[in-house]
From TrEMBL:
UniProt-listed CDD domains: AdoMet_MTases
Origin superkingdom: Bacteria
Organism of derivation: Flavivirga amylovorans
InterPro entries, A to Z: DNA_methylase_N6_adenine_CS (IPR002052), RNA_MeTrfase_RsmD (IPR004398), SAM-dependent_MTases_sf (IPR029063)
Keyword Methyltransferase on entry: yes
Keywords assigned: Methyltransferase, Transferase
Protein name according to UniProt: RsmD family RNA methyltransferase
Pfam families: Cons_hypoth95
Amino acid sequence: MRIISGIYKSRKIVAPKNLPVRPTTDMAKESLFNILNNQFYFDEISVLDLFAGTGNISYEFASRGTQNITCVDQDHGCIKFINQTAEAFEMPINTIKSNVFKFLEKSSLQTNIIFADPPYSFSEEQFAKIPELIFQNNMLLEDGILIIEHSKHTNLSDLNHYSHSKSYGGNMFSFFEVT
């Protein structure tokens, strides 16, 4: 994976092969950040990265100037890799090793952007639980957005707070907003 833009532009990050991850493709990531670039000043926002995996999305935010980034993943290897990478690049990324659903049930954190990249194999009920907990606990700041990455075979348009989706190859990003 590579960082698309910002101070670490073109830097390649190689994750260990044994991590249980499916990193967002560079094409999909670039398209997503083109959308976000028109809505946010990256140096003025906070980000929560759920099911963070390799930290791919968080590195992109950090490279673009975001100073308040929190990554949540339950895999020890993923958290260790994110911590090592963040330290090597001096990125302001905090990590929390936790089951994402347990974290969401208890968290009082509020951010501008919440990005969730759960396993594509999640059931519709598991996908639905993500925005349900986030909006129930008021985790988005005013004008904030939740973005869930999923397969094009998953439809989240019937969920509360759904705004729209964008498709990039086999990947989809569904956007949710405070209404």
